[in-house]
Specification:
single chain, globular, 5-stranded antiparallel β-sheet, Phosphatidylethanolamine-binding Protein, mainly beta, 3-stranded antiparallel β-sheet, 1 helix, 173 residues
C-alpha cells in the first residue's frame, strides 16, 4: 500500500487570525530538521521553548506540537500542555517529562500518553513538519480537563486565543 499523497497545508493558516508573538528554541530551528532528541525512537524529549511579546491580557498559555503531514485526515498531535501560567515564558528541554508549572496539565497526545511524543513519521514518507505553538489565552484556564481530546482543546482555543507564536521543525526517516 502506498501512502503517497499531497503535502498538507499549514493548518494555522486556516484558523481565525490573531496577533503573533516571538517563539524561540535552542533545540528547534524554524524550518530545519529536528535534533535527534526530539525524535521518538532516539531522544523523545520535548524541546526548550522561550516566548516573549504575548498580547496584553494574556492570562495563560497552551503549548502544542502538531504534525499535519501524518497519513490521517486529522494529522497527529505530539504534545498538548494546557493552562500554563501567564508568568511562565519558557520551558526547559524535557519539561514535558518533569514537574509542570503551576496547575498546568497534559492532554493525551495521539500516541495515547500524557506528555510529549517525539517525531515518528512512517519510514520512507515525505518530510513531516512539527509545528510547536504557544497559544496566548485570555483566561486563566482553557476550561478543559486532562481527558479532553486535542480537537476539543483546539475548539476552545479558537474562541480564547489572543495570540499565537509558531516555529516548526521537520523530520524524515
Amino acid at each position: 500500500m502506498s501512502i503517497e499523497r499531497p503535502v498538507a497545508p499549514n493548518p494555522y493558516d486556516y484558523l481565525p487570525p490573531v496577533p503573533s508573538f516571538t517563539l524561540t528554541s535552542t533545540d528547534v530551528t524554524d524550518g530545519e530538521p529536528l535534533d535527534d532528541a526530539q525524535v521518538a525512537d532516539k531522544g523523545n524529549t520535548s524541546p526548550q521553548l522561550s516566548w516573549s511579546g504575548a498580547p496584553e491580557g494574556t492570562r495563560s498559555y497552551v503549548v502544542t506540537c502538531f504534525d499535519p503531514d501524518a497519513p490521517t485526515p486529522s494529522g497527529f498531535w505530539h504534545w498538548c500542555l494546557v493552562d500554563v501560567p501567564a508568568d511562565v515564558t519558557s520551558l526547559d528541554a524535557g519539561a514535558a517529562s518533569g514537574t509542570l508549572p503551576g496547575s498546568s496539565f497534559h492532554v493525551r497526545n495521539d500516541g495515547g500518553e500524557a506528555g510529549f511524543m517525539g517525531a515518528a513519521p512512517p519510514q520512507g514518507d515525505h518530510p513531516h513538519r512539527y509545528f510547536f505553538v504557544v497559544h496566548a489565552v485570555k483566561d486563566e484556564t482553557l476550561g478543559v480537563g486532562p481527558d479532553a481530546s486535542n480537537a476539543v482543546v483546539s475548539f476552545n482555543l479558537a474562541f480564547k486565543t489572543l495570540g499565537r507564536a509558531v516555529i516548526h521543525g521537520t523530520y524524515q526517516h
